[in-house]
Amino acid sequence: MANEHSILTINGLNKYYGSFHALKDINLTIEEGELVAILGESGSGKSTLLNVISGLDTFETGEIIINGVSTNKFTHKEWAIYRNHYVGFIFQEYNLIDHLTVLENVELPLLLQGEKANIAREKAKEKCRLLGLSNHMHKLPNKLSGGQQQRVAIARALVTEPKVILADEPTGNLDSENARIILDILKVLAKNHIVVLVTHDEEYAQEYATRIVILEDGRIVSDTQNKKTRYEVSQPLNLKRPNMKPKVLWKFAKNNLKKRLLRTIFTSITMSLGLIAIFLIIFLLNGIRTEITSLLSKYLPKDQYIVESIINTGELTDSDVEFILGQNIVVDAYFPFSLQPIKSNKDDDEFSKERFYLQTLPLDRSNFALNHLLYGDFPENNKQVIISRGLAESLLNHTIKEKEINEVLKNMRKDHYSINIERVSVSQELKEDFLVVGIVNRNDYAVYMLHPKMEELLTHLTETDIIRFYYSNKVVDRSKFHVFLNTTDEDKIIAMQKKLAERDLVLTNPTKQLYQSIDSFFDTVLTILVSTAGVSLVISGILVGLMIYISVLERFKEIGILTAIGARRGNIRSLFIFESAFIGFLSAFIALVISVLLAMLINIIFDSTIGSLFVLYNIPLFEEAKILKIDGLTIIVVYLIAIGYAIICGLIPSYMASRLRAIEALRRE
């Protein structure tokens, strides 16, 4: 485009404010190389014309054409792009963003274009040096003189290499020396740009302008032109979408929240109160849920299933058992049973010290419900058994402390200690020795034997034996067949369920069902309690929305400036939404720190009080006595909720900010 001439054409332009006709049938064609001064009395429409040309204000009829491209069908986004790429606006009031440095103000239009930060910074430095601002680049605007601030505004207007430079009374607040410096700059710029200057000073216009247009009551009454040439140029506009990157959003959020630090902290603390309650509720329920499921996992193997008849109390037949064992995913299965004598096989009625009951063992140690209490080995064959600590104390005739179990077991192995299983039968006495390979840390009198051997022993007992000599009239419950699978593949398990259903049998996983019930219960309680705690979040959310709304009211000028240099409505929304999100993040951070400290304190208190009682009475409910469980997933979820909720609360004021028209925002400031 270096060798192309830019042309700005205005045809039949009319602008109304209600019933007031501000601009009346304006026709202008301005070419690159011209410095057009627009003169007129106050209220003649000078600034209005400039605002309409820049897209800061709308018009009712007519047409604005830049390089042969009409703006009549421009959307809000395209107008923003037009302002950002093709128009550089220089205000009488400078309109610099006060919390950004000179360099940051100048580079802002480039960052809005999505330019890389390092490239934007270099281009901004170049413009600052060109305008004599090298020694002021890192100062805030309020540290500069009026002339210096106006030069910053010019540097910002030039940094995107616009085709059109619009200056609205740029010398109005300057002394004559600084005014001439600014006009000299504009005169030089006019060689390669379209420059339109609104001024009330006819002397400056005559001295610097190449063309003077006089407005009166919204009409052009005089147009003195020094050039008559016209160029037919139709150059497509590159409407690249402006975009504020997160780094720019963060800079604005940080500066503005820092500027209103006390308000930000107060709002964040208020919002954090509800989050603290939510954190503690979830930590508590997770702690209790974890302890309960951990306790159950010690007694309920996850891969243990139960096969039952579809008929209540219906028993499984031998053919049913054979069919189940024939499934390739079944690795072990048995009917659980225990056998406890009413009295010993001696003639007297006294219970002997060998009085104990037999319990069934699966073939795999991992499926043993009391595996967590087992010291030593698991039986490898039918000649080995496990006994309880209570029975071991009775047999050895001395008390065994928990820390002594391993030593006792070591001595029993060394002596090849065996226990005699002596069963009472009407027809015969049943005696057999079994080697003790492990001890279960329980106080009862029990012997644990692999189920194949138990089934063998039971074949020697008649129903009469069971009724006469044992507590249970029915030692084997054939309605529940315990099955262990070698897979967790749901498809294979469902396939087996379908096969069993054809035989009127049902395969269930009681452990899984129990866990699901526990999860359902705690999820319900969690929903109720978190909903209750969420009431305080509603109140704090109103406060967040109010804070963002007040921020919008306080920053009309900033909104107007950003819009004037090409920020889209979406950019303005993103700016305030980002601030809302930061408040949510800060609230969650405060809540997390306080909640973690409280959770640790509560756990310490619980451990030193209730937890010590569990240890004293050897109740294995809580290994570490932590009633509140801190977990990363909860922290992430609550963080996301806090940020998302804060964003939602800030949506309405953010939307209001994005709907402000630049010209109105600048006027209201």
Structure, explained:
- The strands form four sheets. Strands 13, 14, 15, 16, 17, 18 and 19 form a seven-stranded mixed β-sheet that branches. A six-stranded mixed β-sheet has the order 6-7-8-3-9-10, sandwiched between helices.
- The longest helix is centred in the last third of the chain and has 48 residues, at 569-616.
- The protein folds into four domains: 7-242, Rossmann fold; 254-298 and 516-668, no CATH class; 304-329 and 481-508, no CATH class; 336-476, no CATH class.
- The chain has 21 helices and 21 strands.
- The protein is elongated, with a radius of gyration of 43 Å.
- Helix 3 (102-112) packs across helix 4 and helix 8 (246-259) crosses helix 18.
- A hairpin with a 2-residue loop joins strand 9 and strand 10.
- With 669 residues, the chain is an alpha/beta fold.
What's the CATH topology label of the largest domain? Rossmann fold
What is the makeup of the main sheet?
A: 7 strands, mixed
Share of β-strand residues: 15-25%
Spatial separation of the terminal alpha carbons:
38 Å
How large is the count of helical segments? 21
Kindly list the characteristics that best describe this protein.
4 domains, 669 residues, alpha/beta, elongated
Characterize this entry briefly.
With 669 residues, the chain is of the alpha/beta class. It is 48% helix and 18% strand.
Q: What's the SSE blueprint?
A:
Layout: E1 7-17, E2 20-31, E3 35-39, H1 46-54, E4 61-66, E5 69-70, H2 76-86, E6 87-90, H3 102-112, H4 117-130, H5 146-158, E7 164-168, H6 176-189, E8 194-198, H7 202-208, E9 211-216, E10 219-225, H8 246-259, H9 261-299, E11 304-309, H10 318-325, E12 330-334, E13 338-339, E14 357-361, E15 374-376, E16 384-388, H11 389-396, H12 405-414, E17 418-423, E18 430-440, E19 446-450, H13 451-458, H14 463-469, E20 481-485, H15 490-501, E21 505-508, H16 510-554, H17 556-564, H18 569-616, H19 632-649, H20 651-659, H21 662-668
Helix pairs in contact: 3-4, 3-5, 4-5, 5-6, 8-9, 8-18, 9-16, 9-18, 9-19, 16-18, 16-20, 17-21, 18-19, 18-20
